[in-house]
């Protein structure tokens, strides 16, 4: 018996197909696929027995072997580095991080509207710090999480953006047990190259436990107080003292970022030096 469908029957059949197609469409499907393939390659490297590339060159092959211990875990981040994107939109930043040619990325991007985009697994190494130094750390990419704030560098940070940042930092600090003093900015670790995050509310973050800040009441430091040693103990690269002072003042003073420490600046530095000791 021949069966007939009216237009209503046809419409009811088309609706599920339409929504199925809509749900399966993802404009980042291609780059997500590349991400998964790269992650799979890293996974295969970890599973290799013996581990790939683990031959000790200075020891003959017959004198070395691999025995897998049962006591190990994933390396976890110990720093959070905050950036501003110096771009005009979250979409522009995402496109930048999806181009192989840029060789740059971050773990998170937070838009002006407060929306958070997670782009690199926390346990993987993102290319956000570049050539940098903080204390004895010279490869910050390998031990930190990078957070990019959608901001051109001259505009205020929106309340929605800062609120989302606070929520994210709360999670990251608790999850990875990141020390309070290890929440820093890109300009702190790369003072000769970077100014971000510019005009950033570090005091507000410090009040929530993300970074240190100086006390309201300050003391005049003793005559023997060495400002170079103090900056070095905090973490700054003092091989270029002018750059280190500017980076310090960009973070903790902000009203004046000249390469000279005033008496007020020195009092702030002394107060912070004692906190970092």
Please provide a written account of the structure.
The structure is a single chain. By secondary structure, this protein is of the alpha/beta class. The protein folds into two domains: 76-210, Lysozyme-like, CATH 3.40.80.10; 214-277, no CATH class. 39% of the residues lie in helices and 8% in strands. The chain contains nine helices and five strands; from the N terminus they run ααβαβββαβααααα. It has helices at residues 7-24, 29-47, 90-98, 159-176, 186-189, 202-207, 227-234, 241-252, 263-276; strands at residues 79-84, 108-110, 116-118, 144-149, 183-185. It has a five-stranded mixed beta sheet with strand order 3-2-4-1-5, with helices on both faces. A hairpin with a 5-residue loop joins β2 (108-110) and β3 (116-118). α7 (227-234) crosses α9 (263-276). It is globular. Mean pLDDT is 90; it is low at 10-23.
Task: Show the helix and strand layout.
Blueprint: H1 7-24, H2 29-47, E1 79-84, H3 90-98, E2 108-110, E3 116-118, E4 144-149, H4 159-176, E5 183-185, H5 186-189, H6 202-207, H7 227-234, H8 241-252, H9 263-276
Parallel strand pairs: 1-4, 1-5, 2-4
Antiparallel strand pairs: 2-3
Helix pairs in contact: 7-9
| Count of separate DSSP helical elements | 9
Question: What amount of the residues lies in strands?
Answer: 5-15%
**Overall average residue pLDDT:** 90
Regarding CATH, which class of the largest domain? Alpha Beta
CATH architecture of the largest domain: 3-Layer(aba) Sandwich
Q: What would you give as the CATH superfamily of the largest domain?
A: Peptidoglycan recognition protein-like
Assign a percent range to the helix content: 25-40%
Order of helices and strands: HHEHEEEHEHHHHH
Morphology = globular
What is the straight-line distance between the termini? 89 Å
Beta strand count: 5
Low-confidence stretches: 10-23
Largest sheet: 5 strands, mixed
Helix/strand-derived class? alpha/beta
């Amino acid at each position: 018996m021949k069966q007939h469908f009216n237009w209503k029957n046809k419409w009811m059949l088309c609706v599920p197909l339409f929504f199925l197609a809509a749900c399966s469409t993802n404009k980042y499907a291609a780059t997500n696929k590349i991400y998964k393939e790269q992650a799979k390659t890293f996974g295969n490297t970890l599973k290799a027995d013996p581990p790939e590339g683990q031959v000790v060159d200075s020891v003959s092959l017959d004198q070395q072997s691999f025995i897998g211990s049962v006591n190990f875990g994933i390396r976890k981040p110990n720093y959070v580095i905050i950036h501003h994107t110096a771009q005009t939109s979250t979409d522009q930043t995402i496109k930048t991080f999806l181009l192989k040619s840029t060789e740059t990325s971050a773990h998170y991007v937070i838009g002006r509207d407060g929306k958070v985009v997670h782009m690199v697994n926390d346990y993987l190494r993102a290319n956000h710090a570049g050539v940098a130094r903080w204390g004895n750390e010279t490869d910050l990419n390998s031990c930190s999480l990078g957070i990019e704030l959608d901001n051109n560098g001259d505009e205020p940070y929106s309340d929605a953006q800062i609120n989302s940042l606070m929520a994210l930092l709360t999670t990251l600090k608790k999850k990875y047990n990141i020390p309070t003093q290890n929440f820093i900015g890109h300009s702190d670790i790369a003072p000769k190259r970077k100014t971000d995050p510019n005009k950033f509310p570090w005091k507000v973050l410090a009040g929530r436990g993300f970074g240190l800040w100086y006390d309201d009441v300050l003391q005049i430091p003793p005559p023997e107080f060495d400002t170079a040693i103090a900056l070095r103990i905090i973490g700054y690269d003092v091989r270029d003292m002018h750059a280190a002072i500017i980076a310090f003042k960009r973070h903790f003073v902000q009203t004046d970022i000249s390469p000279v420490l005033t008496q007020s600046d020195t009092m702030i530095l002394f107060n912070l030096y004692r906190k970092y000791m």
